Amino acid sequence: MIQTTTEYYRVVLQRIQSLDGLAPLLLRLYLAPVMMQAGWTKFQSFDSTVAWFGNSEWGLGLPFPEVMVVLAAGTELVGGALLIPGIAVRLVSIPLMATMIVAAVTVHLENGWLAIADSSSWLANERVMESAERLERARDILRENGNYSWLTGRGSVVILNNGIEFAATYFVMLLTLLFTGGGRYTSVDYFVAKRIGRSTH
Question: Where are the domains of the chain?
Answer without folding.
Answer: 22-109+163-201, 116-161
